[in-house]
């Protein structure tokens, strides 16, 4: 379809609020609530040097929700705020300013209505340093925790990594995410060292003369299960005396949050997370591996 030129955010908001008043017939009170939310988003965009919305705003919306949480806004208020933003982006699609709605990729749990818990940088360090690396399983677990955070992986991606997917010399991991889409993510020196230590020691000793294509192995050279990793994560969280309710996804969310809060490029972070279908979103193809690695080293706490 032919898209219309996207207006500036202030013009778009005026059009949207007028649409809600005239076409949807919303009450003044409801309209005021929507208006407050989208104007606050406009202020956020202004602070980030953005004057128009786009189809690539998913990480920008997420960053805004993080900033709202950091400012003390409650979970239910953030959920309502996201509903307001979704309405704005749906309106932009309806008016043929956008082809795709980037707000669809940002979700809140329906029951708890809260963003996943984010660990502080020192909490991540405590968690990663919990395993006893003098023991074979401890060396493996330390490498897994470090890599999960270093590359922002999903737990399913972590346990299915093959040995050939790791390039320690270049500092990259190749990941096959949802829909078998491939992405290459840089990893920092701490992760490289822990993985190398595990491969040369504990992994080799555990396999003996057996062969396994998987990087992280359990009994008889088989890959760990997602449930098995959940159990060891909870054990190490207890050892680190982390009282937040964390999951493997908490480390992935912490990865993205720490990079964004550090000032990393939004598009690069989205590429590293694997949220983008490169085949249909060509704007991301200019983000090179070297650029990703430079950003990771500069902004990741353990880069």
What does this structure look like?
- Strand 1 and strand 2 form a beta hairpin.
- The chain is elongated and about 75 Å long.
- By secondary structure, the chain is mainly alpha-helical.
- The chain has helices spanning 9-22, 28-47, 58-70, 75-94, 121-128, 136-151, 155-159, 189-207, 226-239, 248-262, 266-273, 289-299, and strands at 166-167, 172-176, 182-186.
- The protein has 12 helices and 3 strands; from the N terminus they run H-H-H-H-H-H-H-E-E-E-H-H-H-H-H.
- The protein folds into 2 domains: 9-105, Tyrosine recombinase, N-terminal domain (DNA polymerase, domain 1); 121-299, Orthogonal Bundle (hpI Integrase, Chain A), CATH 1.10.443.10.
- Strands 1-2-3 form a 3-stranded antiparallel sheet.
Supply Rg. 22 Å
CATH homologous superfamily heading of the largest domain = Intergrase catalytic core
The helix/strand order is HHHHHHHEEEHHHHH
* Average residue-wise pLDDT: 83
**Coarse shape:** elongated
* Main pleated-sheet profile: 3 strands, antiparallel
CATH class of the largest domain: Mainly Alpha
Total domains: 2
**Which residues sit in consecutive blocks of at least 5 with pLDDT less than 50?**
109-114, 276-288
């Amino acid at each position: 379809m032919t898209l219309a030129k996207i207006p500036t955010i202030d013009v778009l908001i005026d059009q949207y609020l007028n649409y809600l008043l005239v076409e949807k017939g919303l009450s003044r009170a409801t309209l005021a609530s929507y208006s407050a939310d989208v104007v606050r988003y406009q202020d956020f965009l202004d602070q980030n040097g953005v004057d128009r919305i786009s189809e690539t705003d998913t990480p920008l919306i997420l960053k805004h929700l993080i900033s709202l949480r950091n400012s003390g806004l409650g979970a239910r208020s953030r959920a309502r705020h996201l509903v307001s933003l979704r309405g704005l982006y749906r309106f932009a699609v309806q008016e043929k300013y956008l082809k795709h709605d980037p707000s669809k990729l940002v979700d809140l749990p329906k029951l708890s209505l809260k963003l996943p818990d984010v660990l502080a940088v020192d909490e991540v360090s405590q968690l990663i340093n919990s395993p006893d690396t003098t023991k074979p399983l401890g060396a493996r677990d330390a490498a897994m925790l470090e890599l999960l955070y270093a590359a922002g992986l999903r737990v399913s991606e972590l346990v299915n990594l093959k040995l050939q997917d790791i390039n320690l010399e270049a500092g990259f991991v190749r990941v096959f995410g949802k829909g078998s889409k491939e992405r290459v993510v840089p990893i920092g020196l701490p992760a490289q060292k822990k993985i190398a230590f595990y491969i040369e020691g504990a992994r080799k000793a555990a396999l003996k003369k057996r062969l396994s294509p998987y990087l992280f192995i359990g009994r008889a050279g088989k890959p760990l299960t997602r449930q098995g990793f959940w159990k060891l994560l909870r054990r190490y969280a207890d050892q680190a005396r982390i009282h937040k309710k964390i999951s493997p996804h908490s480390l992935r969310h912490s990865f993205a949050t720490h990079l964004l809060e550090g000032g990393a490029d939004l598009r690069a972070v989205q590429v590293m997370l694997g949220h983008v279908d490169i085949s249909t979103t060509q704007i991301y193809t200019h983000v090179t591996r070297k650029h990703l690695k430079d950003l990771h080293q500069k902004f990741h706490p353990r880069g």
